[in-house]
Design brief:
Layout: H1 4-8, E1 11-12, E2 20-26, H2 37-51, E3 52-53, E4 58-61, H3 73-87, E5 98-100, H4 110-119, E6 136-140, E7 143-147, H5 164-172, E8 178-182, H6 203-215, E9 220-223, E10 229-234, E11 237-242, E12 260-266, E13 269-275, E14 281-287, E15 298-300, E16 303-306, E17 317-326, E18 336-342, E19 350-355, E20 360-365, E21 374-380, E22 386-394, E23 402-406, E24 413-414, E25 416-417, E26 431-434, E27 449-459, H7 460-471
Parallel strand pairs: 1-3, 2-4, 4-5, 7-8, 8-9, 9-11
Antiparallel strand pairs: 2-12, 6-7, 10-11, 12-13, 13-14, 15-27, 16-26, 17-22, 17-27, 18-19, 18-26, 19-20, 20-21, 21-25, 22-23, 23-24
Helix pairs in contact: 3-4
Length: about 475
């Protein structure tokens, strides 16, 4: 546990490499009430933000600032005043802009939308008709920030968002090198917590919304609402959920934690670190993903063999696989193993293969002996067809770090899952099989043909240590 002296020290931050941007993003404090439990937890996160040196250039708050959800507009105003004038009084908003996002605790009907506009009068009024001061955009040099209202009363409330204005803004700012879209509700489920409209954007809006992000080259969608930290990627666009700014309960408890996210954006892309209330970096990522050329990967022979690596969980390990071959004919849905990592006598800790009649890319990770494993499901492959699939297990991305792409579409996408963790807790066994081996419990061989498997390994932590050594402020 850090002592009082270490708690007061400046915290090393990520900075832009050349021209760029340095910022903090967090959300969901549900505070604004003096003496209430969330005031203390929110303050513990703000303590970390205040220790960042150099300070952020701007701050994004992703909603649920106050407890809200009141029928009394004067009560909402009182909570907003306490949040802005007391809990956030430490932030010089003239020097460091604070941009807020609408949310289910603050803008849940026309009355609360009006109070939001009134109390946050500094926000731009350049949104679509009826959403002025609720949806808006900000341009900072080569960076475009677009804030969307994911519970607009004009569309029916929570979990609904318009996309025509979003597409128009993104199109008019096509010259922006970096584009970030900010909203409260996720599009893709997080940690297995799913429910249209209440937990993520409803299906009649979600597909077109995500298409807009992909079509216009958006780097990331920043959201909160689900009380967790989570990152996923879908068709090359990140979804980053950060909802750890103070709401005391977690989703799920015992896995998630209070946090803020400090980030840097430059010509090389986005880098972030997730800091808990002790100032410890719990998760980190650099995006786009940089892997060695596949020609440098190790070719794995068919059959059982010593693992290319094994050992304890490693939070920044990136294990990459390439699978090339031809799928089996149709008619048999039993599992087909591509790579299995196991300890003799135990069910596999890691199984990668095709499952079902549709031959769907599937990853199974065993938590521990005699506990049900977690499943990740990817694209289905046509029968008797050539395939070239790349699969990455990125421990720094948590459950969203099981990602794949293909030779036909090089954009990375996370496999779907209902797990709160990914390979960061995986103990890597010392034995692997390639193409299936009957002596491994539950294994069935690959039934297609011409299977070739190659493997690459990246230690992202060593790269990150070098960055921090260069960026750390003097003592």
């Amino acid at each position: 546990m850090p002592d009082a002296t270490s708690r007061a020290r400046p915290l090393a931050v990520l900075v832009a490499k050349g021209p760029g941007h340095r910022f903090v993003v967090y959300g969901d404090s549900c505070s604004g009430i003096a003496g209430a439990p969330h005031e203390r937890t929110f303050a513990s996160v703000n303590t970390i933000v205040r220790r960042l040196e150099p300070a952020p250039e701007f701050v994004l708050f992703l909603g649920d600032e106050i407890a809200g959800l009141s029928a009394d507009p004067d009560e909402l105003r009182t909570e907003w005043r306490y949040w802005l004038e007391h809990e956030m009084a430490w932030l010089d908003r003239n020097a460091i802009p604070l941009w807020n996002c609408t949310s289910n605790h603050t803008t849940y009907d026309t009355m609360s939308e009006a109070v939001f506009r009134e109390m946050l009068g500094h926000l731009p009024r350049n949104g679509p008709p009826g959403q002025e001061g609720l949806s808006y955009w900000v341009r900072r040099g080569d960076l475009l920030l677009v804030f969307v209202h994911t519970q607009w009363s004009g569309l029916g409330g929570e979990g609904r968002v318009e996309t025509a204005w979003l597409r128009d803004v993104l199109g008019r700012h096509a010259d922006a090198r970096h584009k970030l879209v900010v909203g409260h509700h996720p599009v893709h489920p997080i940690n297995g917590f799913s429910g249209a409209y209440q937990r993520e954007i409803g299906p009649e809006h979600a597909a077109d919304f995500w298409d807009a992000l992909v079509d216009h080259g958006v780097l990331a969608y920043l959201c909160s609402h689900i009380l967790a930290f989570d990152v996923q990627v879908h068709r090359g666009v990140l979804q980053i959920c950060t909802a750890g700014a103070g709401t005391a309960h977690r989703m799920p408890e015992g896995v998630e934690y209070l946090h803020c996210v400090q980030a840097a954006l430059d010509a090389s892309g986005l880098r972030y670190q997730v800091l808990d209330t002790e100032g410890i970096v719990r998760e980190r990522l650099g995006w786009p993903l940089h892997l060695p050329a596949v020609e440098q990967w190790q070719t794995l022979a068919a059959g059982e063999q010593a693992a290319p690596f094994s050992g304890s969980p490693f939070a920044d390990r990136i294990a990459a696989f390439r699978f090339v071959g031809r799928t089996a004919p149709s008619g048999d849905g039993s599992p087909q193993a591509l790579v299995t990592a196991f300890q003799p006598g135990l069910l596999p800790a890691l199984w990668i293969g095709f499952g079902g009649l549709e031959q769907r890319l599937t990853v199974v990770i065993g938590r521990e002996p005699r506990r049900s494993p977690y499943y990740w499901h990817g694209p289905a492959l046509a029968p008797n067809a050539a395939f070239d699939v790349r699969l990455v297990l990125h421990a720094g991305m948590g459950p969203g770090g099981v990602i794949c792409c293909s030779g036909a579409d090089p954009r990375w996408s996370s496999l779907s899952a209902a797990s709160p963790w990914g390979t960061e807790r995986l103990h890597w066994p010392a034995r692997w099989t390639v193409g299936g081996a009957s002596r491994v419990a539950g294994d069935q061989p690959f039934r297609g043909s011409a299977l070739q498997v190659s493997f690459g390994l990246v230690d992202a932590l060593s790269e990150r240590r070098a960055e921090l050594a260069a960026e750390r402020p003097p003592p």
